[in-house]
Structure formats: C-alpha cells, structure tokens
Amino acid sequence: MVIGAIADTLGRGIESVSDTVSEAFFEPVIRLGVTGLARSGKTVFITSLVANLLDRGRMAGLEAASSGRIEAAYLQPQPDDTVPRFEFESHLAAMTGKTPFWPDSTRSVSELRVSLRVRPKGLLSGLSGPRTVHLDIVDYPGEWLLDLGLLEQSFAQWSAEALAKARARTEGAGFIARLEALDPSAKLDEATATDLARDWTRYLVAAREAGYSDCTPGRFLLPGDLEGSPALTFAPLPDGPAPRGSLAREFARRYEAYKSQVVKPFFRAHFARIDRQVVLVDALGAIHNGPPAVEDLRQALSGILATFRPGRNTFLSSILGKRVDKILFAATKADHLYHEQHGRLQAIMEALVADARGRADFSGAATGAMAIAALRATVEETRRVDGADLGVVRGALLEDGRQAALHPGDLPLDPSVLLTPARAGAEAWLDGDFGVMRFAPAPLSLRAGDGPPHIRLDRAAEFLIGDKLR
C-alpha cells in the first residue's frame, strides 16, 4: 500500500513537471473544473460560458474580451482521449432553439477544450505576437466530489455520520426501521445486502429531492456502469462486532473497495489535475426547502472545499501535485430575483462558505463568491402592489409554459437571519417561506457576435481565468 502511494505521488509529479514544461515553452493550458450539486446548472453554465467565449458581445466583464485582446476563440478536440466530449453543440441547440428547453444534467465526467488567441497586454504587446491559451473545461457531478471526503473516513466513521443524518431526516425513516430489525454480525446473505443497498439508495434519492446536499456515496445516485456491482452494494451499519463472514465485515470491505477502486481513480485521473474550480450552488432552492437544507448545504460546501487542497502553485507543489489556486462559489439562478436582491444572495453565498473560505485564503488560494445566472430565463418588471412598487421577474413556467411573475420574498440584508436558525436546528423559518418557481428558458433572438444572455457570467470568467489572459 505504501509503495503504491509512493508510485502514485511520483507519477503525478512526473505528469505535473511535464505539464509545467509544456506550458512554459509552448501554449499554456488552464484546467477549469466545473461542479455543483443537483439542479445547480452545471451543463447550462458550461454551455453558456463556451458560447459567450466564442461570441463575446456580452462579455464586457472579461477584460481580455472587452479590450479586444482576444482575437479569436475556437473549439478543439480535448486532450484526454478516454474522456467523453462535453456535448456543447446539442446543449446549445436545446437552450437556444425555436422551442428551448433545459439540457440533461451532468451524469459523468466530460471535457471540452476552448482555445483563445490572445494579444499580450502592455509592453509585451509590441514585442511578441498573439499567443494561444487553451481552456480545458472538466465537467463532473458534485455528488462524486463529496465522495473525496470518504478517503479520510473509516467505514465506522462514515456509518456513524451517515446514520445520524438519516435519523434526522424524515426520508431516512424507512431505512432506519429496516436496519433496526437486522443483525449486522449475522452471516452475509447477498439478497439482504442487495436490499439494504437499494433501500439506502432510495433514501439518498429522496433526501436529494427534499433539498439535502450531503448524500453519500455519490455514485449510488449516479452509478453508471457500476450499477449492481459489489463496490456499490453496501450501506452504513451501526457500530458493533464484525466477525469473519458477517454482513458487517463484508460491508466494511466493500466500502474500502469503493474508495480504492472508484473514488481514488477519479481523483488521480481528473480532480488532482485541476487548476481553477467553480462550484455552482442552488442556494435559493436550499432556502426554499428550509433551515435543515441550508445547514446541510453549509456543511457540504465546507467539506467540498476541504478536498481541493487549496493553495498557491509553487515549484514544490508541481512535484507533489498541483493545487487549486482559485475557487469560485457561484449562487446560480440569480435571474429568479429582482436585481436589487442580487447583492443579498451574494452575501448569503459568502456567509455559507465563510469558514471554509477562511482556511483556503490562509493557505494562499484566491476564493470568491458571486450571484450569477448562466442563461437568463426571465425579464424584470415593476408592479404596483398595495400602493407600493414591487420588483418581480417574469418568465415561462417549466411545468406548463404559462407566463408568470414571481416575487419570492425579500432575502434578508443580514445572512445570519437565515444561517443562525439553520445552525441551531430550526425546522422552519419564523418569518414564513421563501417562494420559488421553475422557469423554462426563453426563446432568444441573438445578434451576430452575441452569446446567450446571462447575469455576471463575464465577471465569473474574469475571476477564474482573467489573469491567465494578460
């Protein structure tokens, strides 16, 4: 095991040195990881970002675009031949067609390379011609990212934490009842093991639908070709004796196999090579689902940031493995709010990741929080209600296409109004609920040179890659 770990470290070191030499003497490459939890809009974000890099009329917040220093942008084959290509063209057609619809969500890792021909800035512009910067966008499910935290947990530790969450959620009642009638120290029975794993998966699906973010193992939700395999046939068990041949002993073994054969290969192949990262968050959805969902989201975000090994890239880190040096936490669906509330949504996003950001900033990584909409699906209106002007957003409802106006309720100026009761274990907001609607994408009529309409996607791009385009 030790020799294997040393070999992995040396392999990553050689790869990192090779990447560093290539970037220094040839064409620099930025590997941007894009992830987020369910319904946070990863596919839409990547599609709109790429479309707006190709046609930069709406990218005033990206300095290299607004100054005209990006002379051209074009798609190229991604460098990883074993990774599926992100289906940009089909996703863009879905979002911008005559009858637009939201594209399918992320279910596995995919990649896309966008190459930018950029003129240098300042004195260098007269000494050298344009250079090519490659942006490799890596799309992967946030549910898989949560699994990286399992690498530091034993089966007993994960079980205790997972069962505590299941007991606190109404969605976990069925699994807990089944578990209480079971003897984990009894001889392994595959039918029982399969039923337990399926019950745990049903609970995870129900918990995610209820708005909870921390639902592990993530591959149980998105199993792909691993569905039904022993590596995905286990569930948390209460602490107790685990004799040889027992259900408890086998589940512990399968948990370790899951980490070594599923989680670690993902880390080595994709995650450990990322330079910049954006984490998309449906904060509005969590607020709508209530204090338990908000607190669960806060804890999940803290766990996510801990997996990034944040810090500045140095010569030493190029040997030991790259560190993510910029991380953006983006609250999506800002177009569901009137613009006057965008600042409040950003403040809530900043408060949700405050503890985790402090640790990252201390280690040298630049972190940011922002409220964005990768594809604007609504328009703003002001309506007179009870003698006062009320800002609303209007769009087509996803369920039936009807036009509807929404004022979901005013977000608080002070994020602690939400986070304090969430941390204290409140079950509901004292001041009522925050409404939410699901809007369909609006039909578009794009001018030549314009990408899809958005909110602050250009500023997000400037934070993530702007310094690499100078």
Automatic annotation (TrEMBL):
InterPro entries: YcjX-like (IPR007413). This is YcjX family protein. It comes from Gymnodinialimonas phycosphaerae. Pfam families: DUF463.
